[in-house]
Amino acid sequence: MSAPTRDEFLSHVHQKLVSPPIQNPTKKGSPTKSTQRYRWRNLLPWDVEAEARVYWDALGDDQKNAIVDVMPGYWDFLQQQLEAYSQPFTSEPSLRVPFSNAFQTPHNTAIRGAGDAHAQIWIEGSQLEEQALGNADFLMVYDGKLCGLIELKTWWKVTETEIDEVRQGT
Amino acid sequence: MRFDKVHNTYRVNLLTKGTEPLEGEHHGRLAIEQTYGYMCFDKVCYGIMATFNAFVLMKRQNGGILYMSRTIPINSTTPTILKLLYYFSYLCALHPDPYPELNSEGIPIYLKSAPKTPDKAPKIPDPNYRPPARTTTLSPSNTEGRRRSARLLGTSPTTESLHLDVANLVSLGCKGWRGTLTNGPVFVKLWDAWKFSASDVEHEACVYQRLSELWTTIVPRFIGFGQWGFCHILLLSYLDVIPSSLLL
Fold first, then answer.
1. Which pLDDT score is estimated for A63?
2. Nearest 10 degrees: Cα torsion B9, B13, B14, B18
């Protein structure tokens, strides 16, 4: 088994993690207490999947077929890691390690040697040019600058239905 | 005229409007508001709200515009989440410089704190809003030794200095006072300048200006606004209202 190309490597599909037992379905736990919440003025749909397909189709074969420097059977090993994760998923912090294993490390590995610029995913920003004011779980960093963020929430609290209610037009 | 344009623009842009309640424990709303808030505070264009099992990709534009993807499941294949992240990190790298929310004058806006409850979060102010010209700058006259520091604001040629007599202020309850200007009694609204943004008083003045056709009928005449000692001040004509109980 040889090391995968970038296209093969990024074509991997993760499976959902299993929800913890809900002890009291009527009470899903306390909501966020962040004082940095803000409300937008206009909400517009973003078909980022279509954009990503166009971007990926336009990438040169040299980029798609570049070998990613991981050991053979990388995803099998990772799947074993995720399955062996014995700590119960009870809160946002308990998802950080699985998220880091499943997305952060593979992403930062895949962008090595890329022909275009990509931000890395960092877990904290003490080395940034300008410190982050927010408290996001992961930071997108390019050239020492914060340029994006990832906020983790738990899937048993924030559901697709609720997100759709925010997003849905009337 | 400018207001009409703004209003029309607002209507056109509002393609989607959420159906979620704006207050209370709606985890979806709170999660998106939190992620969007972090994006504003950290002055970045791009953000993701992820539950591990699903992803919502977001990008923001100045003026409180938020673009939001559908909820993309982790097992999506068109493209995979890993390819989406690859594209997302490319977008992020294209915009590495700080991207703050700006007001109509190109100045970064001051971001307020949200309550530590699920209550309504502050909203990005209208980027097309222009504060009305300060027609009045007030300095407290100090006739009875009650010390207030006079602070003149603005150097606009339209700025006019008025003097409100401290000694004749009579509390009407809450923030309302009855005072005396040169031409007679006025209604005075005073509130803490150290605690509340100047944009609040500018907004209120703007509302009164918009209602100018109703002045002296059901709306008092707007005289001016400014700063008075440590307070924001708004001056209106004084309407002596007869209590309804006396009309019976």
1. 97
2. -140
**C-alpha pair distances (Å), B171 with each of B120, B183, B208:** 32, 20, 22
For B8-17, what is each residue's pLDDT tens digit?
333 333 333 4
- List the 10-29 stretch of B: residues with Cβ below 8 A of A: 10, 13-20, 22, 25-29
3-state DSSP: chain A helix, strand, coil percent, rounded to 5? 35, 15, 55
Give start and end residues of each alpha helix (H) in B71-175: 81-94
Q: Quick one: closest CA in B to A38, which residue?
A: B37
Complex confidence, ipTM: 0.94
- Options 3.30.200.20, 3.90.950.10, 1.10.3660.10, 3.40.50.11540; which CATH number does B137-146+158-241 get? 3.30.200.20
Mean pLDDT of B82-93: 98
In order, the DSSP letters of B4-73 are: HHHHHHHHHH--B---S-SSSS-HHHHHHHHHHHHHHHTT-SEEEEE-SSEEEEEEEETTTEEEE---EE
**For chain A, domain boundaries:** 6-14+47-167
Q: Does A112 touch chain B (CB under 8 A)?
A: no
